Amino acid sequence: MELHRFFEGIRMMPEAVRQVGRLHIEERTYQRIKALFQRDKKKFYTTVLRQPDFRICFLYYFSRMGCETYERYQEDGIGERIYWDTFYDLTLWCENCFREYGAYGTDQYDWFFRHIECRLFRLGRLEFERMESEWALKYGRTEIKKGDTVINVHIPQGERLELAAVRASCEQAFSFWGKQYPYICHSWLLYPELSRVLGKESNILGFQKLFRIVQVDFAEREAEWRIYGKIQDDLELYQEATSLQKKAKEYLRDGGALGNGLGILDFSAG
Questions:
Q1: Which of helix, strand or coil describes residue 70?
Q2: What is the pLDDT of residues 124-165, one digit of tens each?
């Protein structure tokens, strides 16, 4: 697949496409960097990070490799809709990069190996990644040990989290991956205390009910980043353009904390 066709398919921002076109990376350089990616991802990251325009360089390399991944989708009989939806992630993260840094490309460089190695697929509203569990979990008769195969559920940004779409997405995943593995999710959207910030009819709270939340943590400030687009040490710098932003800010002012929840999908829920 040609790079221009790939960018059209994932609806990449026009200015980002223009900047990629100005890079003039030689084919032998691309092949060397791709081989490094396949052999040693940490060295790949550090090599590209040395470039002054590393964000747009990452976008170029991931997009080129994404083009080549198309053949594997065809060989495995995976539909084009799934291909385009999955790699649309590059566009979403390019938008985030521009909003946060004023630069096109991606700063989330350690995320996209999943897409290129066909570990993660977007199936409707949600993304599903087959991986080895990073956690040891137990809920009822369900026990997961570290290293066990699980399906990790991710929630892409940009669309409402309507429960009908979520359930349809899960059904697609069950057909794609099966039900022999536990489905888990680690996200700010599963933090139980969001009930103090959101209304009872919130889609997010409905999403939580599909999972059995077994752990919470405060290792990241993902909720603040997702709600406000940027993490600030001074709460007063957070905007209050939406009701969620207003309520979250008030909650934080009152000493509340926003963390992450870790949940196991209840196949019978909903």
A1: helix
A2: 999 999 999 999 998 888 889 999 999 999 999 988 999 999
Does 270 have pLDDT greater than 60?
no
In the chain, the domains with their CATH numbers are 1-118 (no CATH), 124-270 (3.40.630.120)
Residues 6+ apart with CB under 8 A from 270: 163, 167, 209, 210
Euclidean distance between CA atoms 189 and 153, whole angstroms: 12
Please say whether the beta carbons of 97 and 56 come within 8 A: no
Neighbours of 255 (CB within 10 A): 6
> Model pTM greater than 0.90?
yes
Q: Which distant-in-sequence residues (6+ apart) come within 8 Å of 18 by Cβ?
A: none
3-state secondary structure of 205: helix
Q: Strand 142-144 relative to strand 183-187: parallel, antiparallel, unpaired?
A: unpaired
- Least Cα distance to 223 among 192, 201, 254, 200 occurs for 192
